[in-house]
């Protein structure tokens, strides 16, 4: 049975009726929902191949993986990866934004209970033909969520219509400045660069979306990053939203022993008030 993108967009909208007021943001959310619908109606592999760009960034065993060849080489699975958008935001220029929310996996589509849970984070970009492509998709695993998340967006939306040809090099340099401070001060570096709306995602942790969550996480966590390397990124045409991804060594404690794993990180930067760049999303995934 053949499906069109429009068909999946309509299906995705009906499956998840919550809406946002910004039409460009809604179009991006609808694209994510169409992606979700295709994963259910067909299979996860084909849905990823349809919606991801040819040079999309995903998580590999040794850090970021570029392109979709590894996905294409996998056989279609009977499993069902389902997810939903819980939070979204978009640049003032309306052509780049991000979604995040919970995912769950069932070994069979007919299974009542999931066997794995986590959080997804996707960067979307509008194409020349008006369609949307997922250009980066990074997820973490965590325990079953305590409660369902409802759709929300930033309380500080970007509204300036001025296009200033944002420079990817500038956002990469900004991230390197943060890394330099992180290497000196550790998590205290976030006090300088973090937005008050920052959302953290760490492998094995439920979403950290408040200062209270973050303080509690720091008290119990032994997580630390080293050998952090910037690999790429991009910025919106309005030069007010950008992202950076890279690799790192991640120290975690497993059964009482410290283990170092290869990690993939994502940071989304936002120019709040049109003046100051702040981190609004900070993700570290490791396999």
From TrEMBL:
Keyword Kinase on this protein?
A: no
Keyword Transcription regulation (UniProt): no
- Domain DUF4440, residue spans: 42-133, 171-279
Q: Which residues form the signal peptide?
A: 1-18
Q: Keywords in alphabetical order, please.
A: Signal
Task: Tell me what this protein is called.
Answer: DUF4440 domain-containing protein
Q: Per the UniProt entry, what species is this protein from, by scientific name?
A: Chryseolinea serpens
